[in-house]
């Protein structure tokens, strides 16, 4: 987790990359049970064989996006001072991921701008890619980050 990083500390063009990771069939099943999704492309290996020529289950895009967002929050946004997530823009599911494939995330700071007298806004271009570099998801992630001279609340200082 990044700590004590302020708006002024970020440099446009900087890139953060996660370690490689894998989303398993168990991860997908737990996610589907949680959200109530029951599409065959995520649960039925025979359906996937007929549709795609492989028994490999397809990982839901929203699950991939949620994991990427967690990595992003832990790698590029500070826990202190508090940096509220502003939102996602231009989310695109541009590739298919199947369970067991190796992936990683790449976050590139593409813009810094003033938001108000307390926060500046950072925009990160985010890619989730397969081990071979093939993109799966593209999005712009935005976060508000305090200016260095902003007065902090007592809670934030403890």
Question: What does this molecule look like?
Answer:
The protein is of the alpha+beta class and 158 residues long. Helix content is 27%, strand content 32%. The protein has helices at 25-35, 40-43, 45-52, 61-76, 154-157; strands spanning 15-17, 21-22, 85-93, 102-114, 119-130, 135-146. The radius of gyration is 18 Å and the shape is elongated. The protein starts with 14 loop residues before the first strand and ends with a helix. The model is unreliable at 154-158 (pLDDT under 50).
Short synopsis of the structure:
This protein has helices at residues 25-35, 40-43, 45-52, 61-76, 154-157; strands at 15-17, 21-22, 85-93, 102-114, 119-130, 135-146. By secondary structure, the chain is an alpha+beta fold.
N-to-C series of helices and strands: EEHHHHEEEEH
Count of alpha/pi helices: 5
Number of strands: 6
Derived from helix and strand composition plus strand pairing, the structural class reads alpha+beta
Low-pLDDT stretches: 154-158
Q: How does the major sheet shape up?
A: 6 strands, antiparallel
Mean pLDDT: 90
DSSP helix fraction = 25-40%
Shape category: elongated
Residue share in β-strands: 25-35%
* Through-space gap between termini: 17 Å
Oligomer: single chain
- Cα Rg: 18 Å
Structural topology:
Elements: E1 15-17, E2 21-22, H1 25-35, H2 40-43, H3 45-52, H4 61-76, E3 85-93, E4 102-114, E5 119-130, E6 135-146, H5 154-157
